[in-house]
Structures are given as C-alpha cells and as structure tokens.
Amino acid sequence: MPYETADIAPQEVAETAFIPLNLEDEILRLKRDLNSEIQDLADFVGDSLELSRRAASTDRDVIVFAGVHFMAETAKILNPRKQVLLPDLNAGCSLAEGCPAPLFKAFREMHPHHVAITYINCSAEVKALSDIICTSSNAEKIIRQVPEDRPILFAPDRNLGKYLVKKTGREMLLWQGSCIVHETFSERKLLRLRAKYPRATLIAHPECDEAVLEKAEFVGSTSALLRYVQQSAEEEFIIATEAGIIHQMEKSCPGKVFIPAPPEESCACNLCPYMKLNTMEKLYLCMKNRSPEISMSDDLIGRAYKPIRETEESGSQIFPDL
Ligand code: SF4
After folding, report:
1. What domains sit in the chain, N to C, each tagged with a CATH number?
2. Which of the listed residues 30, 76, 139, 283 has the most CB atoms within 10 Å of its CB?
C-alpha cells in the first residue's frame, strides 16, 4: 500500500513514520479493530447535546471524538470507564477558554447566593464549579424552573445569556464570554445577503449576536435548526451558525438551498477554526496510536458529573433520552 508523510509536526512524523494514502479506508479498518465509535467521516459535527447523548449511550470500548476538547471531556465524564480519544488536544473553544476555572470560582465566591447555570460549552473544572449544566435546547426550561427569589448567574456565553433573559424575562448575571464563530456574523453583510435572497428565511443559533437574533425568523439549537429546515415548506434559508451543519442540512433536504451567513472577516467560510484542527491525518494517527487521550481524575469526573445529575433529577433532563 502506498504511503506518504502528512502535514504534521516533525516529531509526530518521527513517531508515526507514515500516513496511508487511503485514509478513509484505514480509519474504517481501525474503527473495526478498536471497536470504537467515530462521527461522520465527512464534515458534519453534531451539536454538544447530540454528541454527548451519543457518547453516553454507546456500548463501544473506545470513543474517538472528532470534536473539541470540552465535548470529549463531557464524553469522559459520562463514560469514566471508557477510553476517550481526541485527535488534537488543541481543539478548544473560545467559550470554554474565555471562562477559566480560577476566575469562575472567584466570580461565584463574589455571588454566593446565585444559582450557577452553565452552558455545556465549558471545561470540566467549570462544570464542577456549577450548580446546573444546560444546553441551548434546555436552558430556557431550566431557567423557568428556578424559584423567583433565587438570583441566577449564567456562564459562559453572554449572547445566549442575553437571549435567555429576553425569552424568560428573568434577570441574570452574565459571564462575558462569547463564541468567536457566532460573533463574527456581520449585521451589515447579513442585510446585503437578505436583499440578494429576499425569499430566504434567516435562522440563527442563540449564541449569535443580539442584532442577528433580532432579525432571525427562527432561533434554536443546532439540532432545532436542522429540524426546522427539514419540516419547513420554505425552499431557501440563510444559516447563521457554525457552517458545518449545512452539510447535514443539504444531505437531509436535497433541493433546498442553504446560504451560510457571512462572517465579518473576508474569509469565505465560517467553520469553527477549533473544529477544523481535527484533520483526517490526525484522526488516523489518534486511532492508530490510541492517543491523545482525555484523562481526568475520578474526583474531577465525580464533581463535574454532579451538576449534570442535578439537572436530570430536577426533571429538566439535560440528556432526556437516557
Ligand atoms: S463554534 Fe463556537 S462554541 Fe462551538 S466549538 Fe467553536 S468556538 Fe466553541
């Protein structure tokens, strides 16, 4: 079989020597050998909730997470006895990185009476410091269940937080984090795009800037956006979220037109730069070497799982299918 060196660091080349040319076949072979579970080898990456659900329900021995670090950590929290691999440990997330655990701990100590509701896009340490972990799908329901006399602190996404304040009418103290992908949608370019495609329906993820959300016909989590385009009678959509989902929309709705909302910078694509660190070469090497692996202490896993369990027990199940 022919081999070639890949575009990877010299020490990695030394360790691994060669990359097979037919990566897809090799990855599928490793998948069978490892009894592992990987996401679509194409370019779709599901939302945090879907991936976490999948991770929690798998009966496989090894979970290979072609996503970002906090998602792989969540898979490990839900599957502490399984091996969880992430092709590139640098695949982070601006929301998770913008909320370091020591600062979040200090923030909580300044507001000891607040209930801390934290979006799942955060590190395991921050999960462990939270009372409840939510997703964009269940955040509204959870907030509505918090007694009126309990003040709420919401982290780390200020845009999702602002959207939820508006939706629920509930004042919340917001951590000032943001998703770099969702923040780059330019309002002006969006208006130009709407003028060019007057029949297109604008749909947006709640992490988007307020100005974009105000103009959207529908706002919802990644899976809600997918369901919306599948069920809608409309034919054209402008999609304001991480553009990887468009591949999935095109696959499930042939004939419909999906236009990615334009980012502020000139680059034509608004795919998450962190997600893009997961190349096929790194996926192959990760499966071959069973490394890099997500490792966390049992203590941290236990503390990070607690707010997820609290949510399940409160009836606002974060993972409703479990
Ligand atoms: S799209 Fe945004 S929220 Fe998702 S991983 Fe990338 S930076 Fe984080």
Report:
1. 3-92+275-298 (3.40.50.10800), 95-179+309-313 (3.40.50.10800), 185-260 (3.40.50.10800)
2. 139
